[in-house]
Every structure is written in structure tokens, then in C-alpha cells.
Design goal:
Helix content is 50%, strand content 14%. The chain has 423 residues and is an alpha+beta fold. This is Short/branched chain specific acyl-CoA dehydrogenase, mitochondrial.
Length: 423
């Protein structure tokens, strides 16, 4: 259609077709200008900055050389190796978005997503430790902390101390605002009493962001976020024994009149609900990246085996049935990747991303479980053993449909956006 503008056929009134076309184009909402790849302002979702590419290579090397040799041992012992945690700090991976003034790398949100993805390719347990610390704990201090709070806590979180996000309770999972933990004023301090469950990083953590209600009569508007430490009285009550991500600590916390100074309130009294909602939307992109990396890790371990294992005179991966399964898995992984990085870029650009984050987490968690399960079958009996590590990816994948918002919560979020748009 646009080629018609190049012809010079006479039109009524003496105007040529080319002139008519030029006048018509002036009234259009789009441009017919051909833009080369080098000129485009809209790069593909596979386009990353030099800094982001270097980070990916650095994290990949750390994961393969430092984390990989310890994965099975950590999984069997259900304990995170302290040297791994130390290495994360030394590599600058515990303060990715934190400003250089506070000891951080001052990188992009997408950089954090890249790090989470690359770590998950080798061990999702290490990945989630890095994820929660960066996308939840550090971000809360950066977005809602006062300058004094940032100066006190961010350097510690970037250099040596693991952080933990303490929201869930026995009676408040998906209904997070039904929490029963209370905080009451005592002079210039707050006394926090209650319990928390399913708290990631809690065994390694030294800094805890605890959500408690200071005025139950106000409902969720009484929820407030506090910074606490073990020295203030936070106690690890029980470490859960889990199906997957076993090296990642998941514990119950006991809070018995934990004394927290008033200066440790984050974001203001009664604003904890707002912090929790907003931060979990960002955190879901991190979980999507973890599940994406997990799926890729399982795929990368199983597929080469299918081209080495010969049955009936040819590699099993060459049979049409299996080759189509592998192709479909690759398609699913790429789809999850695009959803994840689209959500990350939208967040960076300051655009709405809540629906996109929900879509990314939901899709990536489904893909992780499907691909890791298929990977076991592709490797046959070998895949079912612990020796290859393939089965661990499948065990680790199940949590993706549960934490930081179940799959049904993600579907509900997506449905609300659709209803708002079309009803």
C-alpha cells in the first residue's frame, strides 16, 4: 500500500499520486519511514546494556564455579553453605540496585532479574536468597526508608547482613492482611508480639522486616512495617523441612515482646499494607526470573543427554516424539522469558506492571514445573536419580506456584485488569 506513494500517475486537478500520498501521510498517526536496526529506539527484549551483559557473564561464572560444586551437598543437608552467602556479598550481588554511596552496585532492576535468573539455572535455593534480599528487603529501604534509615541499614545489607521479609503467618497466607501479630507502644519503643511462618532467609538473616498491626480496629490500615534484629528478641522457632529449595531456609519466627525503637518504623505508622502490596508486585518478577532460570537449568541438563543416549540405532532426542517435546519446551521457556523481561522493563520505565508481573510469575512457574518434569522423563531412569540433579529442579519448581502469591492469586489479579478494561 505504501509503495503507491512512489508512483507518478496523474490525478484529477493535476496532482500526481506521489503528492497525494505525501499529503495523506501528513494526516496519519504513523510514519512510513524505514528505520534501520541501528536507529531503532525500540530494541528487542533480548537487548541488554554492556553492564547487564557483563553482569550476566559474571553471575554465570560464579554460579558454575562456586555454587554448582556445593548444590547437592546443600540440598541433602538442607543448609545454605555460609561460603556461598559470603560469595554473594563479595560479588556485589546483595546490593544490586543499592546506590554506590550505600555500598551497592547501583545497577538496574533488570540487572537484579538477570542475577536471579542465572543463579537459578544452577541452584534455585541460592537464587531465592538473593531474590528476596534484593527485590523485597533492599527495595523497601530504598523506596520507603528515611535517609537516616537508608544510611544505617543499606550498607550492612549490601556488604554483610542478610535480610528477611516477614509477612506470612499461620492464619494469613494469601489473605496477608489477616495477620495477627500485634505491636503496642511502650514509651519510645514498640513491643511486637506474635508469630510468623514460611519466612525465607530467616536462618541466615540478621535484619528482619516485620509486619504487625498497631491498631486492629483500623483493620489493614493499622499494619505497620518494623525493622528488627535477633538482638532485639527475634527468635527462630522452627525450620521447615521442605520438598524443594531445601538449602533455602524457611522458618517460623517467635516474637515475644520484641522491643523495637520508634525510629525503626519504615514508611510511617499504618502504611505497612501499602508497602507489602507494592513490594510483592515487584517481587513477583523476581520469582518469575527464578522459575525461568530453573526451567533453563533443567532443559540444559537433560537435552544433551537425549543426543548421547542411543536406542534403536539413533539418539533418543532425534525421535520425532521427543524432539517435538523438546521444541515445545523451548517455546515455553522463551515465552516465559519474554513475559519476565517485559515486566522488568515496564517496571524500570515507570509504567504499570502489576498485570504483567502476575502474568510472568504465573507463566514462568507453570513452565518451570512442566519443563523440569519433562526433563526427568527425557533422561529416563538416570533423570530419576539424584546423581544428575535433574530431579531437584522438579522438586524446586513446585514452590513457584505458591510463594509471593499463589497461581490463583495471579489469575485473580489478571482477571481484575481484564474486567476493568472490558466491563
Amino acid at each position: 500500500m505504501l509503495r503507491a506513494a512512489a508512483h507518478s500517475v496523474k490525478q484529477p486537478g493535476g496532482l500526481t499520486a506521489s503528492l497525494c500520498a505525501r499529503r495523506s501521510l501528513q494526516n496519519r498517526w504513523f510514519s512510513a519511514t524505514r528505520v534501520t536496526c541501528a536507529e531503532t529506539a525500540f530494541p528487542s527484549l533480548d537487548s541488554f546494556s554492556d553492564e547487564e551483559n557483563m553482569l550476566r557473564e559474571s553471575v554465570k561464572r560464579f554460579a558454575e564455579e562456586v555454587v554448582a560444586p556445593k548444590v547437592r551437598e546443600m540440598d541433602e543437608n538442607e543448609t545454605m553453605d555460609p561460603e556461598i552467602v559470603k560469595g554473594l556479598f563479595e560479588q556485589g550481588l546483595m546490593g544490586i540496585e543499592t546506590s554506590s554511596a550505600h555500598g551497592g552496585a547501583e545497577s538496574s532492576f533488570t540487572s537484579a532479574i538477570i542475577a536471579i535468573e542465572e543463579l537459578a539455572k544452577v541452584d534455585p535455593s541460592v537464587s531465592v536468597l538473593c531474590d528476596v534480599h534484593n527485590t523485597l528487603v533492599n527495595t523497601i529501604f530504598r523506596k520507603y526508608g528515611t535517609q537516616v534509615q537508608q544510611e544505617e541499614w543499606l550498607p550492612q545489607l549490601a556488604e554483610s547482613k542478610v535480610g528477611s521479609f516477614c509477612l506470612s503467618e499461620p492464619a494469613s497466607g494469601s489473605d496477608a492482611f489477616a495477620l495477627q501479630t500485634r505491636a503496642r507502644k511502650d514509651g519510645d519503643d514498640w513491643l511486637i508480639s506474635g508469630s510468623k511462618m514460611w519466612i525465607t532467609n530467616s536462618a541466615e538473616a540478621e535484619v528482619f522486616l516485620i509486619f504487625a498491626n498497631i491498631d486492629p480496629s483500623k483493620g489493614y490500615k493499622g499494619i505497620t512495617c518494623f525493622v528488627a534484629t535477633k538482638e532485639m528478641g527475634v527468635q527462630i522457632a522452627k525450620k521447615e523441612q521442605k520438598l524443594g529449595i531445601r538449602a533455602s531456609s524457611t522458618c517460623a519466627l517467635s516474637l515475644d515482646d520484641v522491643r523495637v525503637p520508634a525510629k525503626n518504623v519504615i514508611g510511617g505508622e499504618g502504611l505497612g499494607y501499602k508497602i507489602a502490596i507494592e513490594i510483592l508486585n515487584e517481587g513477583r518478577i523476581g520469582i518469575a526470573a527464578q522459575m525461568l532460570g530453573l526451567a533453563q537449568g533443567a532443559f540444559a541438563k537433560a537435552v544433551p543427554y537425549t543426543y548421547q543416549r542411543v536406542q534403536f540405532g539413533q539418539p533418543v532426542g532425534m525421535f520425532q516424539g521427543m524432539s517435538f517435546q523438546i521444541a515445545n519446551a523451548a517455546l515455553s521457556i522463551e515465552s516465559a522469558r519474554l513475559l519476565t523481561y517485559n515486566a522488568a522493563r515496564r517496571k524500570e520505565e515507570g509504567r504499570s506492571f502489576v498485570k504483567e508481573a502476575a502474568m510472568a510469575k504465573l507463566a514462568a512457574s507453570r513452565v518451570a514445573q512442566e519443563v523440569s518434569g519433562a526433563a526427568i522423563e527425557w533422561a529416563g531412569g538416570v533423570g530419576f536419580t539424584r546423581e544428575t540433579g535433574i530431579e531437584k529442579y522438579w522438586r524446586d519448581s513446585k514452590i513457584g506456584a505458591i510463594y509471593e502469591g499463589t497461581s490463583n492469586i495471579q489469575l485473580q489479579t489478571i482477571a481484575k485488569f481484564i474486567q476493568k478494561e472490558y466491563s
